[in-house]
Amino acid sequence: MTPIRELTGPVADAMSDARLRDTQPWVQRGLVAGWPMVQAARRSTADAMAYLKSTWRGERVGMLLAPPETQGRFFYNDSLTGMNFGRELAPLDVVLDALLKMADDPKAPAVYVGSTTVDTCLPTFRAANDLPFGDRDPLASIWFGNRSRIAAHFDLPDNLACVVAGRRRFTLFPPEQLANLYVGPLDVTPAGQAVSLVDFANPDLERFPRFAQALAHAQVVELEPGDAVFIPSMWWHHVESLTPFNVLINYWWRQSPEYMDSPIGALMAALLTMRDLPPVQREIWRGVFDHYVFRADESTAAHIPPHARSALAPLTESGARHLRQALINRFKR
């Protein structure tokens, strides 16, 4: 596997438009090294936990709990009919105290608090621990727990992930490796996103032979507190937490307007309406999609007066509402 390229320079360079629109991943060591949270984590786990508690205002957090035999792999059960973990809600300080007590226990259950909005859970955290995104308004989330393995998945938004306590390993794959990652169900998932079924700690190359091709295109990095990795939209990423206590702060933002829906909705609708058509009809619809979506340009609707283009007009917030309502009406039939 190839190391993810590492860049250097001031924070302003890392947060430039060019860097935040990159289509290839990058790492910057020490990008958030000046954060008080990072400095606390470098002193001790207890200091890191105390700092988190100082910015907490009583919200409960959702956590995943997996038995020791899972070895921190939050995943499906053996039959893929459910999950190998349970879910609970608990106050943040209770979770942190439990993690501290289990830190030296090699047979501790796996505990994982994921995708929790920082501004809700830790309302004063970003006052001293944040990055300058300019006109962007990213969603900041916190992820913490003990040793864990999160299956490879992709996200639609661009992602800047900052390790602020513990150590994490990221393994990234470009979007075109989809077929080689053996992705599981789209609608029944461990945490909302479809995931690779391959166990990266023990890949079964008889069952998943093309995974060897994916590994040839993989990029990997191990990050310490203060380091950050940029994961472009749609890049697959497998994340491992390597120490008994880990904290990650990540920022998500989209390069498209907020009123645009996620393309996964179109994929699910296509599975419903097109995948099982006769092959000839499916190819015809491929051409229709090329014409109206993938190769659309100014000429696509040029023959229609601008005021009459309706769904073919450039998308606006009101146009998005119109299309969404039209879809709802169609699916109600």
TrEMBL record:
Gene3D superfamilies reported for this sequence: Jelly Rolls
Boundaries of every JmjC domain copy: 111-268
Domain of life: Bacteria
Coiled-coil parts of chain: none
InterPro entries attached to this UniProt entry: Cupin_8 (IPR041667), JmjC_dom (IPR003347), RmlC-like_jellyroll (IPR014710)
The protein's name in its UniProt record: Cupin-like domain-containing protein
Native species: Scleromatobacter humisilvae
